[in-house]
Write a structure and sequence with these properties.
single chain; 407 residues; alpha/beta; VC0802-like; Rossmann fold; 2 domains; six-stranded mixed sheet; 15 strands; elongated
Length: 407
């Protein structure tokens, strides 16, 4: 559909989908949270607004901006804010039928061309001395009468141009486009805190993103598997891309230099087939200890952990080992593990990563990963105890680096 000339516009109308299905209490909380996230996202992108309001029935959020900023704001909110179902650049007028007709004619004058077909889509909420059908008929008749020279015709089934009219109590909103957002989902909320274990796999970033889309605050714990800094730089770049979707001024990365422990394990164990299983369980143990530290304890209630485990063999660890590790994760970590990528196929993973950002990069394969891998909990746990790894784990916890990607 054709854009209205921005000089005619005075607001953007924001709709939510899934939020509207929640109970009254939860819906109210989520709408307020979504509004805060929208404000943060606009400010982050240097877009100012005059004010925001809710329609009387709380079915829409209204943001009033300079007309030249409206399409820029829509671009940001469409792509980067979870919880929004669709957006429309709109004109607001009073719910007096004469005013509605006049503003509809202004829009018609802007978008209608010779021999166009058009339709008026009207809906109404509240008490008025007219029906939605009255609005559609009288506005349609006015358009045909005013623009006789354009040879217009009404086509209700497949019109070339549409004019939408939402009459809501004392105000009416008129627009020509309903712009679906890229992601939908739920707004990121303060109380939903999830740890993300990231070893540089693209699916680790995707797992975090998918839980952000479900309203979670993400706390990344990055395990740098490599001795050089290049791999870590790639992970940090991934998080800068993911961070463009984060509606908070703080997105702190917890960075652990995991290479020394990996090197020790690789040098000391003869049964290399257990290398990946041992690596995974030690990472869970480190996270468990980190959550008891002053950095998290009594500050944030962590609800769970997410990881990029999936069943596609897109990464170096085989599916069977990953599933076995999940089955025994509660032995090392007292948190539920959310595997948000586990039902995705390779094409879905790649397509979604490209949609998030074409700049997301994958790490190279772990240098300590054996070709043949197995999992046996008793054998792996015996190896863990025999290597006296606790002091190394405490050393790595002491040296955790924190980085806010917005600073």
């Amino acid at each position: 559909m054709q854009n209205i000339n921005s000089n005619l516009l005075n607001l953007i109308l924001i709709r939510y989908g899934e939020i509207w299905l929640k109970s009254k209490k939860i819906k109210s909380r989520m709408i307020k949270t979504l509004t805060k996230n929208i404000i943060f996202s606009l400010k982050k992108n240097n877009i100012s607004f005059h004010k925001y309001q809710y329609t009387q029935d709380f079915a829409r959020i209204l943001f009033f901006l300079k007309n030249e900023d409206i399409y820029k704001a829509i671009g940001v909110l469409k792509e980067k804010v979870f919880g929004i179902h669709s957006i429309s650049p709109a004109i607001r007028t009073s719910s007096i039928l004469k005013n509605i007709i006049n503003r509809t004619l202004e829009i018609g004058n802007d978008i209608l061309d010779q021999n166009d077909s058009f339709a008026i889509r009207a809906r109404r909420s509240g008490k008025h001395p007219f029906t939605s059908q009255d609005v559609a008929e009288q506005c349609g008749d006015a358009v045909l009468s005013c623009f006789k020279d354009l040879n217009l015709n009404v086509n209700l089934s497949s019109p070339k141009k549409k004019i939408f009219i939402e009459v809501r109590d004392n105000f009416t909103y008129i627009f020509t486009r309903i712009i679906k957002t890229d992601w939908g989902g739920l707004p990121i909320e303060p109380g939903k805190h999830i740890i993300n274990m990231d070893i540089g796999r693209p699916t680790d970033s995707l797992a975090a993103f998918l839980l952000m889309k479900r309203g979670c605050n993400i706390h990344p714990i990055i395990f740098n598997l490599f001795k050089n800094k290049k791999n870590l730089d790639g992970i940090l770049k991934n998080w800068k891309n993911i961070g463009t979707y984060y509606n908070d001024k703080n997105l702190e990365l917890n960075i652990i230099n995991f290479n020394p422990i990996l090197k020790k394990i690789h040098n000391e164990i003869s049964e290399k087939k257990y290398m990946c299983a041992l690596c995974n369980l030690i990472r869970l143990k480190i996270i468990s200890n980190l959550l008891k530290s002053s950095q998290f304890k009594d500050k944030i209630k962590i609800r769970g952990l997410t990881t990029g485990i999936n069943l596609t063999d897109i990464d170096c660890c085989p599916n069977a080992v990953d599933l076995d590790i999940l089955a025994y994760s509660n032995k090392f970590l007292d948190l539920p593990v959310f595997t948000s990528c586990i039902g995705l196929e390779i094409k879905e993973i790649i397509d979604m990563l490209n949609k998030i950002s074409p700049n997301l990069k994958a790490k190279k394969n772990c240098p300590y990963c054996p070709n043949n891998q197995e999992f046996d909990y008793e054998s792996v746990y015996d190896l863990y105890k025999s290597m006296n790894l606790e002091k190394y784990i405490k050393k790595e916890l002491f040296e955790v680096k924190n980085l806010n990607i917005y600073s």
